[in-house]
Design a protein that fits this description.
Blueprint (H helix, E strand, L loop, with lengths): L4 H5 L11 E7 L2 H10 L7 E7 L17 E8 L8 H20 L4 E3 L3 E4 L2 E13 L2 E12 L18 H5 L5 H16 L6 H9 L7 E6 L2 E11 L3 E6 L4 E4 L4 E6 L5
Parallel strand pairs: 1-2
Antiparallel strand pairs: 2-3, 3-7, 4-5, 5-6, 6-7, 8-9, 8-12, 9-10, 10-11
Bound molecules: biotin (BTN).
């Protein structure tokens, strides 16, 4: 069954997110479509869904794999009033929302691999791509793109993703209604969007949800690779690694191209 605004909106309890819902059969990227909607004046919380993307984007120009009709591909227009130094919090709340939605929809524990991959059992189940626009150094518009694997079977995954990726259906052992997953996502984003004013709740949840705190990781930044142990993860201050050289070094989420947890999946 296709996602429709009606199926998502029935029993949807949100204040802002999903007040307007657009569902498409196909588009290049729901983020691009949400930009068009936003630039044409779409209200705060407008959500765009698609059955299929022909140019789904991941972070750092990577492509996003999602077989037609079996995922939740969603982009939400957000218009918060925040200062430029709080921009990383938008990515943090999007990742927290996606993690909550995974738990609500499939009843399995979800973790966040810095800065914004959602993992279940060490395998990636959702990804977040936040884009923003600034007007004279103040951010005024965000597109929060979330790709959630819902009814993708293990056999549907291309060989190179089979070990590294998972889906709600794989984890639950049964298909999950995509409208329910979409609703869970809009509701959790609506809750976390309200927390953007402060930082305390986001910080706490972010640490608790971390898949990497205290673990040995390998980070790629600016074409270089760094190995070390994660001393701290913070949505604003970034990732603090105790490098093998003994030095501490901080990494900002938006600069981290790749992060691998050593000796584990993903
Ligand atoms: C990543 O893990 O690199 C982020 C992936 C984000 C994918 C979603 S799918 C919906 C939205 N539209 C896109 O083109 N990308 C995001």
């Amino acid at each position: 069954v296709k996602l429709t605004p009606e199926s998502i909106r029935s029993r949807l309890h949100t204040r802002v997110v999903g007040k307007r819902i657009v569902c498409l059969d196909a588009c290049e990227s729901t983020n691009d479509r949400a930009w068009q909607e936003a630039l044409a004046g779409a209200p705060d919380g407008t959500a765009v869904f698609a059955e299929e993307q022909t140019k789904g984007r991941g972070r750092f120009g990577r492509s996003w794999y999602a077989p037609k009709g079996s995922c939740v591909l969603c982009s939400v227009v957000l218009r918060p009033s925040i200062e430029a130094d709080r921009v990383p919090l938008v990515t943090a709340v999007a990742a927290l929302a996606a993690a909550d939605a995974v738990e609500d929809a499939a009843g399995v524990e979800a973790k966040i691999r810095f800065p914004n991959d959602i993992l279940v059992g060490g395998r990636k189940i959702a990804g977040v791509l936040v884009e923003s626009r600034f007007i004279s150094s103040k951010p005024d518009l965000f597109i929060v793109g979330i790709g959630l694997n819902v009814n993708v079977g293990r056999a549907d995954l291309p060989a190179e993703l089979r070990e590294a990726a998972t889906s709600l259906a794989i984890e639950r052992g049964a298909e999950v209604a995509r409208a329910a997953a979409a609703r869970a996502l809009l509701e959790s984003l609506d809750r976390w969007y309200r927390e953007l004013d402060g930082v305390k709740a986001i910080r706490k949840a972010w640490r608790e949800r971390s898949a990497i705190l205290g673990k040995r990781v390998r980070v790629r930044e600016g074409g270089r690779s760094y190995g070390g142990v994660v001393n701290e993860v913070d949505p604003l201050d970034g990732l603090v690694l105790r490098l093998d050289s003994g030095h501490e070094r901080a990494f900002r989420g938006e600069h981290v191209e790749r992060l691998e947890v050593e000796g584990s999946l993903g």
